[in-house]
Amino acid sequence: MGYKTIVTVMTGDGSGSHLDAAVALARREDAHLDVFCLAVDHTQTGYYYAGASAYVFQEAIDRAMASAEAMEHRIRDRLTAEDVRWGVQSGVAQLGGVSALVAQRARFADLAVLPQPYGPHAPADAEAAVEAALFEGGCPVLVVPRNGDAIERMGRRVAIGWNQSDEALQAVRLALPFLKAAEAVEIVVVDPSPHSPEGSDPGGALCQMLTRHGVHCDIAVLAKTLPTVSEMLNHRAAETGADLIVMGAYSHSRLREAIMGGATRYMLERATLPLLLAR
After folding, report:
1. Domains within the chain, CATH numbers bracketed
2. Which of 92, 186, 214, 270 has the fewest CB atoms within 10 Å, counting from its CB?
3. Residue 105: pLDDT above 60?
4. For the chain, what percentages of helix, strand and coil (3-state, to nearest 5) are there?
5. Are 136 and 100 in contact (CB under 8 A)?
C-alpha cells in the first residue's frame, strides 16, 4: 500500500513551502495531488445572529470568493510545469465552516501535507486545517516545517515516538509506506512504565510487527533526562540524523494541550523535521 491520493490546503495568501513538499512527495509516490485553495471570511463565525445585515454578509463573502479564485489561478499556473497528476479546487468558508470543508477532502485522501500550524510565520487558518484533517477527516498529516528543506531527503532515517497509545499505533500503521522504504527506523521509548502491558520489553512487539513488513528497525529505550518527552524525542532525532518523526497525535484533548501543553502541541510548535501525525 502506498500514498496514491495526497491533499494539501492553501490558505491566507497561498504561499508556503508545503506545496513544494506535496509536489515532491506526489512525484516520489507516483500519486495524484489535490490542492484545495481555501479563503476564510474572518468577519463572521458562520452563524446568523439577530440584527446582522445581509449586505455585510454578502460583501465579506464576495471578497473571500475573489481571493479564493485568485489563489486558484496562481496555483494552477504554478503546477502547470510540474510532472505530476494534479487537480485544484477553491472554496470559501466562514470561521465555523473551515473544518467541514477540509475534512471532506481529507477523508478520501491517503495523506494530507500541511504547514506547521504554530509560530510567527504560520499561514492563516493552518491550525484549523491540521486539526480538521486529523479529527474530522481521519487522515494522517505530514506537517512540513517552516524551512521546508528536509522534504527532499525525508524518510531515509525515521524516528517513531512510541508510548504504547492507540494513536501512536495508528500513526505507525499509516506511516508504513515511509517505514518500508526507509534505510533505518528507530523506535524511541522514553521513560517507559514497568507496569505497562509491554512489561520488560518496551517496543518489542512493535519492532516484531514492523520486521515482518520488511522494515529495518531498532529500539532505543531512554531515561527522561530533559524536561519533556517531546524534547527527548527531538534530541534523539537530531542525535541519530533522523529526517522524519512519526508519532500519535493528541492522546490528550486539544483543550488540555492548548492550556497545559502536551507532546503534540510542543512538536507542532517546535518541529524542525517533517512530522507525520495520526490518531
Report:
1. 5-146 (3.40.50.620), 153-278 (3.40.50.620)
2. 214
3. yes
4. 40, 20, 35
5. yes
**Tens-digit pLDDT profile for residues 12-67:** 777 778 999 999 999 999 999 999 999 887 666 555 555 555 545 667 677 778 88
- How far apart CA 142 and CA 191 sit, in angstroms, is 26
d(CA 156, CA 158): 6
Q: How confident is the model at residue 259 (pLDDT cuts 50, 70, 90)?
A: very low
Q: Bridge-partner residues for 38, per DSSP?
A: 91
Cα–chain center distance at 39: 20
**Integer Cα distance of 59 and 44 in angstroms:** 11
Instruction: Write down the pTM of the prediction.
Output: 0.89
The SS3 assignment for 177 reads: helix
Of residues 166, 167, 207, the one with CA closest to residue 185: 207
